[in-house]
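Design a sequence for this backbone.
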């Protein structure tokens, strides 16, 4: 599927501004290990409470109310994040600043770039891929050939929310990664029961330190 066809299906426009190119330059995926550029102070200043300047803190707590709302929406939609709630990463800064300034950017390029980085990081990465419902929608609406009946039925019945993509699931599906348990020592003869009303020295300890 071409990028043009995907944009048609999703109703997206192509723009020359690309978030990953601004952040990482011309690095090839996976790009995340390179860190990327921090957005300029003048560009992100409208996102933060005054007085904001060079060297100022850039955390979620420093954001203006509109910027915090936009960041929350991004975490639930375009850039899903489940952890690090107090952090405001570089890509979050780029995205929120573009939304606050109403600067158009290429949405499809952002999604594809995130997918590329997640897949190419593979087992070395810890991020997950949350765009399964987008991919399902594209397959249903833009498939070039007819799908087998069972695949068509599975896609049609799919929900709009899917579990996160985890490349390690492929390993777990075929191999047992757990270390084998050491063989248990043979049990000796059971001690005779203690007389009623008394305790043997091997009874339940009175404290956890025993």
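Sequence:
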């Amino acid at each position: 599927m071409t990028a043009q066809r995907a944009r048609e299906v999703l109703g997206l426009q192509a723009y020359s501004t690309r978030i990953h190119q601004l952040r990482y330059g011309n690095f090839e995926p996976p790009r995340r290990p390179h860190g990327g550029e921090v957005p300029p102070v003048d560009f992100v200043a409208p996102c933060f409470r005054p007085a904001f300047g060079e060297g100022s803190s850039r955390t979620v707590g420093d954001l203006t109310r509109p910027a915090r709302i936009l960041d929350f929406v991004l975490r639930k939609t375009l850039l899903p994040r489940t952890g690090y709630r107090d952090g405001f990463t570089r890509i979050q800064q780029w995205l929120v600043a573009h939304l606050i300034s109403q600067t158009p950017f290429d949405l499809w390029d952002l999604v594809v770039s995130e997918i590329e980085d997640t897949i190419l990081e593979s087992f070395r990465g810890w991020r997950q891929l949350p765009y399964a419902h987008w991919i399902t929608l594209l397959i249903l609406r833009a498939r070039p050939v007819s799908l087998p009946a069972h695949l068509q039925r599975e896609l049609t019945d799919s929900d709009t929310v899917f579990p996160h993509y985890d490349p390690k699931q492929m390993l777990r599906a075929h191999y047992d990664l757990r270390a084998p348990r050491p063989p248990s020592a043979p049990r000796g003869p059971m001690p005779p029961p203690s007389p009623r009303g008394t305790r043997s020295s091997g009874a339940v300890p009175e404290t956890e330190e025993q």
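The radius of gyration is 27 Å.
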